[in-house]
Write a structure and sequence with these properties.
The protein is mainly beta and 156 residues long. 6% of the residues lie in helices and 24% in strands. It contains 1 helix and 7 strands, in the order H-E-E-E-E-E-E-E. The longest helix has 10 residues. About 5% of the residues have low confidence.
Length: 156
């Protein structure tokens, strides 16, 4: 059987007083109620420390963080990866002649395009394979190829 000695029990009150004199109470930090509930004021009593023990080391400084935004941050939906279209190289084009007029609907050009056996008569907006006629000028034709502008002069 275990026998407990009554004289070995130490009352806890002097220990609490000594601990409160050595260790100052931690400050209570209150945050906005909607974000973080406030910490309770009542705290557990820390263990008693001897008066010769060094004070606790200060926590390591944190790196500077930007202030929290004042409004809620909404995550953007993930976007699907972009699909890149592979555009084949432009065919060889030879502009034979152009007929220019101040009215774009009356302009035309006669061209030879690689892969087409015949001479083609084109107007602005016409498409030949991967080429689109963007503009007919007095001295040449501007084609669009994959978003790039290609100018071909008459006779070249």
């Amino acid at each position: 059987p275990v026998v407990k000695a009554a004289s070995a029990v130490v009352p806890p009150e002097p220990v609490v007083k000594a601990a409160s004199a050595v260790v100052p109470p931690e400050p209570v930090v209150k945050a906005a109620p909607a974000v973080v509930p406030p910490e309770p004021v009542a705290r557990a009593v820390p263990e008693a420390r001897s008066p010769v023990s060094p004070p606790p080391a200060a926590p390591a400084p944190r790196e500077a963080r930007p202030a929290a935004p004042s409004r809620p941050v909404i995550a953007e939906p993930r976007r699907a990866p972009r699909q890149v279209a592979v555009v084949p190289p432009p065919p060889e084009v030879s502009v034979l002649r152009t007929v220019w007029h101040p009215t774009p609907g009356r302009r035309s050009a006669r061209v030879e395009v690689e892969g087409h056996g015949d001479v083609l008569e084109l107007r602005e907006g016409d498409a030949v394979g991967v080429l689109v006629v963007a503009e007919i000028q007095p001295s040449g034709v501007v084609f669009l190829h994959g978003g790039a502008r290609l100018r071909r002069a008459v006779g070249r």
